[in-house]
Structure formats: structure tokens, C-alpha cells
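Worked example 3 (structure in, sequence out).
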């Protein structure tokens, strides 16, 4: 199976094949509008502006599975993002990234790149402590742990990296730039 066999649905309920993005560098992100990591939208948009003309596509998939931090409709989410962060990258329909109703795209992404940790620093320690109370075995399963988990896909369609929300966005940008 390939990433290009996957589909996503736009907020307007149109199915889009990821084959349309073949030959591009993809950054696929599950997002939220009311999360401590929501300001990452600003850095994502800056990265999109910097690299879009060179072949970067950011695919934003809002998700409400983590503490109900994306409660609005697809229209309200889009309005929030454009008004507060001037986002221009494609935003898809709010979807699940874990569980019985998870997008098949996320099943594929998690198979390709499992959880490898939160990195170092205070945010990483905080996330680890919080997740231990929710799932004592969280380190040993590939599930998406929180909002703003990012998967980086190269121009050949290979999932090359997974960045947890605690990773410094400068590291994410450096990895993207390396593929551009």
C-alpha cells in the first residue's frame, strides 16, 4: 500500500486522492483550535508560505479526540484558523485519527511511523506525565497521542518522520527544508 492510495475529505465533503499530491513534500497534521499547541498554526503557515512554491503541501486534519479541543463545525474551524492565523493550506473535514472510526490514512501513517517519544524538555515531560494517567502503556502503541502530531512524507511518498506536538517547530522546518 502507498500513501497515494489514501484519500481525505475536504470540509466541503469532496473526496481528494493523495495521488493529487504525488511528487510533493507533505506534512500531514491533526489539529485543534483550543489546544495549548494551537499557536503552531502560525509556524505551520509561515512554513507553508516559505516552501509551498518549492513543493510543500500541508494537509490539516482537525480532530476532536483529545479533550474535546476542536468542538466547532468544519466551517467554524476554518473561520477560526483563517481569522487568527491566516492559514491558506488545505484544511480537511474534522476526523478521528484513532479508534474504530479513524481515517484509513491515519491507520497507514501509524503503521509507517509509530510513536518514538516526545523528545526532551518541559513540554515533553508534561505530555509524558499526562499520558501515563490516561494510558499506562502509551509508549508501546502507535496511536496518535495528542493534537498537532505531524507526519512528513517525501516526494516519493515515503513517510520519513513523525513529530509529536512537543517537538520544536524549527526541527520540523529543518526536516521539511531538507526534503525540498
Amino acid at each position: 500500500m502507498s500513501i497515494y492510495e489514501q484519500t481525505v475529505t475536504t470540509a466541503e465533503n469532496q473526496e481528494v486522492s493523495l495521488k493529487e499530491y504525488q511528487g510533493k513534500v507533505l506534512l500531514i497534521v491533526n489539529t485543534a483550535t483550543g489546544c495549548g499547541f494551537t499557536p503552531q498554526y502560525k509556524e505551520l503557515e509561515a512554513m507553508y508560505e516559505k516552501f509551498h512554491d518549492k513543493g510543500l503541501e500541508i494537509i490539516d486534519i482537525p480532530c476532536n479526540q483529545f479533550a474535546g479541543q476542536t468542538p466547532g463545525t468544519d466551517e467554524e474551524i476554518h473561520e477560526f484558523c483563517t481569522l487568527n492565523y491566516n492559514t491558506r493550506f488545505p484544511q480537511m473535514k474534522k476526523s478521528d485519527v484513532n479508534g474504530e472510526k479513524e481515517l484509513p490514512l491515519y491507520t497507514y501513517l501509524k503503521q509507517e511511523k509509530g510513536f518514538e517519544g516526545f523528545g526532551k524538555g518541559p513540554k515533553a515531560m508534561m505530555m509524558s506525565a499526562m499520558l501515563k494517567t490516561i494510558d499506562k502503556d502509551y509508549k508501546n502503541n502507535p496511536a496518535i497521542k495528542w493534537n498537532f502530531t505531524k507526519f512528513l512524507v517525501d516526494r516519493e511518498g515515503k513517510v520519513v518522520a513523525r513529530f509529536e506536538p512537543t517537538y520544536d517547530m524549527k526541527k520540523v522546518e529543518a526536516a521539511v527544508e531538507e526534503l525540498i
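Notes: The CA atoms of residues 25 and 73 lie 28 Å apart. The domain at 3-179 is CATH 3.40.30.10 (Glutaredoxin).
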